[in-house]
């Protein structure tokens, strides 16, 4: 029964991540088609713009031209998220964490696909009042997920809620079964 639940979680992850990644890739396709080599488009003048950028680094311009490092880092994070999802207990208490796993996975895959296919990430959303770095939909998934995860860990989950992540020897696992 436990194995069936875990497989179902991964199927949900695959479908959710595929849909969210599809949305990210579609918006990037539109950005290339309509924004590349064009003037910025003001959605809200002096606030929000569509601005095409080929980002060869990570968030905030870090790790420029470090494709191998960024691909490995993203892959490790995705493996970690899959591990958490595999171990995640069933129940609505952990539903927020499950949803965040889906969003982080979609964001990671969206930008990873760009890096592998194009050698850069297509960014196109610019928030000018604070001169925020240009970003994309996948970045929104990851950033919002990380902020929500921080808040959930701080105010919703307790330390004991994360006992499921502790490594157990095969003997301990056998005793629990």
UniProtKB/TrEMBL annotation:
Pfam families recorded: Peptidase_A8
The active-site annotation reads 123, 139
Pathway listed for it is:
Protein modification; lipoprotein biosynthesis (signal peptide cleavage)
Enzyme Commission number(s) of this protein: 3.4.23.36
Which InterPro entries would you find in this protein's record? Peptidase_A8
Localization in the cell? Cell membrane
Q: Does the keyword Cell membrane apply?
A: yes
The task this protein performs is described as: This protein specifically catalyzes the removal of signal peptides from prolipoproteins.
**Membrane-crossing segments per the record:** 68-88, 134-157
**GO terms of molecular function:** aspartic-type endopeptidase activity
Q: What is its main location?
A: membrane
- Which reaction is recorded as catalysed by this protein? Release of signal peptides from bacterial membrane prolipoproteins. Hydrolyzes -Xaa-Yaa-Zaa-|-(S,diacylglyceryl)Cys-, in which Xaa is hydrophobic (preferably Leu), and Yaa (Ala or Ser) and Zaa (Gly or Ala) have small, neutral side chains
Membrane topology summary: Multi-pass membrane protein
Protein's recorded name? Lipoprotein signal peptidase
Q: Which NCBIfam families match?
A: lspA (TIGR00077)
Family the UniProt entry places it in: Belongs to the peptidase A8 family.
Print the keywords alphabetically: Aspartyl protease, Cell membrane, Hydrolase, Membrane, Protease, Transmembrane, Transmembrane helix
């Amino acid at each position: 029964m436990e194995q069936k639940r875990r497989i179902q979680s991964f199927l949900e992850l695959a479908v959710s991540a595929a849909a969210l990644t599809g949305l990210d890739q579609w918006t990037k396709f539109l950005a290339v088609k309509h924004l590349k080599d064009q003037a910025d488009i003001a959605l809200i003048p002096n606030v929000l713009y569509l601005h095409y950028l080929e980002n060869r680094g990570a968030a905030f311009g870090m790790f420029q031209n470090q494709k191998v490092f960024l691909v490995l880092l993203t892959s490790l994070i995705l493996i970690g998220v899959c591990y958490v999802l595999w171990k995640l207990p069933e129940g609505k208490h952990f539903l927020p964490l499950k949803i965040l796993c889906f969003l982080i996975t979609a964001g990671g895959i969206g930008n990873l696909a760009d890096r592998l296919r194009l050698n850069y990430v297509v960014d196109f959303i610019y928030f000018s009042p604070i001169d925020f770095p240009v970003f994309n939909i996948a970045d929104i998934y990851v950033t919002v997920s990380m902020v929500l995860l921080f808040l959930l860990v701080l105010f919703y989950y307790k330390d004991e809620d994360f006992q499921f992540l502790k490594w157990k020897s095969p003997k301990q696992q056998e005793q629990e079964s």
